[in-house]
Every structure is written in structure tokens, then in C-alpha cells.
Amino acid sequence: MTRYEEAKKRYAAYGIDTDAAIEKLKNIPVSLHCWQGDDVGGFDSKDALSGGIMTTGNYPGKATTPEELMMDIDKVISLCPGKIKLNLHACYAIFEDGEFADRDQLQPKHFKKWVEFAKERGLGIDFNPTFFSHPMVKDGLTLSSPDETVRRFWVEHGKACIRISQYFAEETGIPCVMNIWAGDGYKDIPADRMGPRLRYKKSFEEIIAEPHDPALVKPCVESKVFGIGVESYTAGSAEFTLNFAATHEGVLPLMDNGHYHPQEFVSDKIPALLCFFPELALHITRGVRWDSDHVVLFDDETKEMAKEVVRNDALDRVYMALDYFDASINRIAAWTMGFRSWQKALLNAMCLPNKQLKELQDAGKFTELFVKQEEAKLLPFADVWEHYCEVCGVKAGSEWFDEVQAYEKEVLSKRG
Ligand SMILES: [Mn+2]
Q1: Alpha carbon of 288 to ligand 1 centroid (Å)
Q2: Which of helix, strand or coil describes residue 86?
Q3: Which active-site residues does the annotation give?
Q4: Measured in angstroms, how far is the CA atom of residue 320 from the centroid of ligand 1?
Q5: Model-level pTM?
């Protein structure tokens, strides 16, 4: 008997069908963010990364052209089990020689190469307007700016992105999740906290009024507690974005687990929002002391978040996207590890005796629940994971890193 067959029997004793879990997970899309490949650089501007976010590290071999980035994404795809969706930011527009369009003038044609890339690989595309790293960010503000010229520029950018999202969905045949995050805020104590939020609200409303098919384009609003240089006040706070989504049909709340106070947990927020919203979205990351966007690991909170999606039967109601960037280690390894970690967390959640544990809770058998939850951690999950990777045709253990090393030697190290 193989190790997987042995493990399968042990899981079956708890009423868990590991074959069914593997079959299901294979087809659940998870969005892979293009921006891990080049430290959130993009191709449309020479401006340094700004807007409250920051990449640290200077590992060699960063992608600097669309061709390099696409090649790197292909490498990551080849190392990851499961179903990938591509997640792009507007700053990754690809211009023909000599051509340029500012963010308010972006058109579907500037993303044609990405659509070709996605279609050749059977991937859907998610999208994000880019409200940072641009000269039109004035005093740290975009959509909430009191300068009408600035605010207008960014509203036009948002509207352009709705049209591009519609194009992605029509071309790929897969709905496009379009997430709006702007880091608008103030470094020090503001004199007016409501004014910027009212302008932000108006801007959002103008953006989503751009014609689109709600079955194809899913606008989201992402909150944040603070950013670098905007420590005292963020216009798009948790309450602001949540209430916006709750009061605007078709708009989804998006929770980034790096965007809250360090002792707040998105795992607890997922079921809270599922009580009210038909659909919601996640940015999965790992904050170390702050929104540091460390690479996602198979750690406790990651597992807990996946558990809340899986055991509430919400895999078709929660759009899952990765959002981290580390430039201090090999970017391909970082990218791959984060994607694989979330896959592990989902598979792990599917292979827990969720029904049995819930019954213990409802029956008030808390001692037994406590014991069984700990016992479940030591089921032979590694064997199920290895089998899942095999089924998906990728390396199960750390052998995938051999391929990363070879790629670094043959490709990354030769980049100027
Ligand atoms: Mn995010």
C-alpha cells in the first residue's frame, strides 16, 4: 500500500474523503499577483514605489520587461499545483514602441498582450487600478483629494479600469474581480476626517457608475488601517469600505489580512461578512508586526483563514488572491512558496473533521472538541499534499526548489 492509500484510510475513519478534496481543490481558482515578480514596479512609470507601501531587499534577477515577467510567471505556474488566475495591476500596461497612455487614458489594447498570455494558458484575469507611484498623487491623496483636477484624474483611471476589466472578462470568459485600493491618508492628525471620506465615496460611486456587466466585473473595495507616511489617518478605513460595499449593490468588500491591527484576525472576519454579503474577496498575505507583506506560509492564521472559507462552504463566494512581495529572496521561490502555502491551507481545511468538530461545539462538549482539534493536526496531511501535487503534475517536496535554482543560474543571473 502506498503512503497515500494508507493516509486515505486514516482520513476515511473520520469521514473525510481525501480523493474528493483533491478533485475539488484542483478546480478552485486562486489569483496569482504579477507584482511579486518585479517588486510592484510595473511598466508605465519610472516613479519609485510610493503610496504607503514599500518593498525591501535587492535580490538579483528582477523582471524588468513584460517578456521577463511573463517568463517568470510561467516558471511559477509550472511549480504550483491547483488552478491559477492571473492578477494584474494597471501599472503593468504594455505599450508598443514609442506609445504611452497616462493612467486616465488607459485602454483595453494596452493589455492585449496579457490577454493573449492568459488565453494561451486558459487563465482568467483579475485587475486593480493603480492609485500609487504616480505624479498625480498629490499630498498623498488620489480619490479623496480636495483638488478637483487630481480627484477627476483618478476617477477617470478607475473608470478606464472598469472598461478594461470588462474586456478581460469578455475575452477570457471568466469574471474579473476589480479591486480598488487607494492609500489616501495623512501622516499627522487631520483637521477634517469626514471630508476626505465623502470625496472618496463620491469618487467610488462615479467609478462604479461606468457601464459594466455585474456578472462579469466584480468591483471590490479594500480597506487599510495605515501606511508608511500615512500613519495617523486612512480615508479608506475598515468601517468606510465595509459600509460602502454594504450600501452599493454589486460591490464586494475585500479584506487584506495585512491591513488591520496586528491583533485583529481576518479568519474571524470572514464568517462575519459571510452572514451579510453574497460574495467577498480576500488578499492573502503575511504581516510581520505591520503590513510587511511577507511571503505567505502554512502558518496558523493562514490555516485558520482557509478553514473559515472551506467549512462555511464558501469556496464559490470568496474570491481569493495573493498579495505579498519580498525582494530579499529569490522572487520565483517567494512567489511559488506563497501560492503553495495557500493551496496547503485549503487542502488542510478540506481534510479536517469539520462536521464532527462542529457537532462537538454545538453539543457543548468543549473538552472533547479541544482534544480532537489538536489530534486532527497530526493526521498524515503530508501524504495527502504529496498526492495532490502528483495529481497536478508538480513536485511535492522541496525538489521544486532545484528547478528554481536552475532557473536562477540559467535565466535570472544573466539579467542586467
Ligand atoms: Mn492588498
Answers
A1: 15
A2: strand
A3: 181, 222, 224, 256, 259, 283, 291, 293, 323
A4: 11
A5: 0.97
